[in-house]
Amino acid sequence: MKKLLSLLLVCIMTVSVCCPAALAEESEPVKGTALFPCDEQGIPDLGGVTIKIWMPMDSDYATFASSYDEFAIVKEMERMMNVNLEFIHPSASDVATSFSLMLSDPDDLPDIIMCGAVDSYYQGGVTMAYADGFLADYTELISEENTPNYWRTVMDVPYLAAGAVDDTGRNIRLGCMVSGSQESCTCMWGHMIRSDYLKAANLDVPTTIDDWTEMLRAFKANGVKYPLVLNKSGYWMSRNAFSCAWNIDARNFFIRTETGEVAYGPTTPEYKEYLTVLNTWYTEGLINPDFMTDTSNETWSMLANGDAGAITNHTVGYTSNYYNVVELQNPEAALVAAQMPKLKDEDELTRVMYTSYRLDIGNAKYIVSTTENLEECVAFLDALHNPTINFLNTYGIEGLAWEYNEHGYPQYLDLTNGTQEQKLAQYIWNFDGTSDSDKEYIKTSKYCYGVQPQTIDLYTQCGYDGIFPDFAVTFTDEEAEVIASYQTDVETYRDEMMLKFITGIEPLDKYDEYVETINGMGLSELTPVYQAAYDRYLARAAKLAEANP
């Protein structure tokens, strides 16, 4: 199975959604569905049918619109596909109750339910929704001929396809947003270091954990108050920013790539070594003492005012908090990016790089079994992956929501004080077929300032086959009960002890006692559940690879 997974990951095809610049100039026809007549762009003519969509209204949009049918892109999709989209918006204050009320009236159900509501609100989840006959099984309609856009975007990509079907072989992810791509991985965060402080310490950018320790100590000796600042939102934790050196996930289950075994990172011998390093940094005053309560903006301020030398954070805050206020006026203080550290220089780059390359289950879309327009719904959801439709849903209306920049990519306009017409011309991410899949677009037009492109280039070199594929695994009812019974307590204790070990409240010579305790709290029950789910995922992947060599 290990070899199978490695083969699948090697064979992953980058999601072949046209980049924005290329799409604008595209002239070759795109293949359309065989279910309905299609135009030269592969967009189907759905014959004027009405499709009812149950879909919560995003709070940002609700400030200036009462329904999605007011949006320009919806009207444009209706025109392009010859379809009438009728929206049912649940109460924003209590979506769960609205979902239950919707289920209580079987004579007035929608055709499609969006935004992953079935996963979140149907008792027993998607598996039970199919078992109850609530959801339509459209598997027989999924093919390269009937759903060509979905096939190209998802089913032709082994890494994604294995998460698009359940353990019975039923296809359940038609229309689901694809986040990122193999090329981009949506790695828009990183280790960023003040170059002036590096120069003052006469050091190169660190590559190993020992290099980091040397650098932080040098910064401290030079009078830097907090050599490294971390914040409570936890990119340093959730992205394995330093635990990556040991190739473990410091928060969750992960895959030991050398064996294919599922292990829980926070109980491994490597995790103790990782905690030992963090405890050393904390004890020596090399990180901010309030790292579990300091906010992201507070840590950026520490870096900008000179109190800090390095930060581990998402680059989205870099432009306004550092680039504009420090770097533009003082280029010598420019930030430089550091690759995810290793234990030894000769080690390979980490295999536990967090990646957002996945099917976005929070944006899952489901067809209700009572629909009288199954083929129309299938064709509509497939069209969301069509390059032209996807472009529309990603950027909105040209001239109102975006315009082309000097690189030939769409650039969103600042609509902070935009007119009602401009706001209604925005994209609606819930319809988006892909997100952040073009690395060059991200580097030149989205995260394009100072250190941002460098972080993206560095982190997309790392591997993510050690990350547990949570978007793709499925759990049985019995397994879900085990998770519900134990996981919250296990994670609460994990976080409590992590903080105590780092700060020294609990000595690390009690680590074995901690592991024994957390196993007794239910981790020993959870581990075989995750292993079984992963084994089934591999089996699905193998079956798909055999069926589509």
Describe this structure in words.
By secondary structure, the chain is α/β, with parallel strands linked by helices. It folds into 3 domains: 26-184 and 360-437, D-Maltodextrin-Binding Protein, domain 2 (3-Layer(aba) Sandwich), CATH 3.40.190; 189-354 and 449-459, 3-Layer(aba) Sandwich (D-Maltodextrin-Binding Protein, domain 2), CATH 3.40.190.10; 477-547, no CATH class. It has 22 helices and 15 strands. The strands form 5 sheets. The chain has a 4-stranded mixed β-sheet with strand order 2-1-3-12, covered by helices on one side. A 4-stranded mixed β-sheet has the order 6-9-5-10. Strands 11-4-15 form a 3-stranded mixed β-sheet, with helices on one face. Residues 1-27 have low confidence and may be disordered.
